[in-house]
Amino acid sequence: MECIFCKIINKEASADIVYEDDKVIAFKDIKPKAPIHLLIVPKKHINSVNEINSEDKDLVGEIFLVAKKIAQDFGIKEIGYNLLINVGQGGGQEIPHLHIHLMGDKDKN
Ligand code: AMP
Ligand code: ZN
User: Fold this and answer.
1) How far is ligand 1, taken at its centre, from the CA of residue 84, in Å?
2) What digits encode the pLDDT tens for the residues 48-82?
3) Does residue 13 fall inside a structural domain?
4) Do residues 102 and 40 lie in contact, with contact meaning Cβ atoms separated by under 8 Å?
5) Would you say residue 61 lies in a domain?
């Protein structure tokens, strides 16, 4: 069965998309744990950090560049924010499709 993030990427499931290009998509987390809680997701299905190969090096760089761009767009780049990647069951990863959590709060000081 196709994973939920692949379904969002293929527009078979809805999400509140905040950024999209040919390689990366970002959308709001359905259960936000911060005032700004976004997920940055490569369109290529990679299960987790453990399955990243050397051929994915550029793509992995891309998701961090998108994180920085979105932080700027949401007005939290200068204040600061959290990036989190859960890996595997022990790391609390629920969705087996690589993603970065971007969490922040505009009112944080
Ligand atoms: P992780 O535990 O790192 O795999 O995080 C998965 C995240 O995806 C959780 O914070 C969920 O709230 C979020 N999530 C699950 N399904 C959806 C969905 N359909 N749309 C947006 N976020 C989702
Ligand atoms: Zn997937």
Assistant:
1) 12
2) 999 999 999 999 999 999 999 999 999 999 999 99
3) yes
4) yes
5) yes
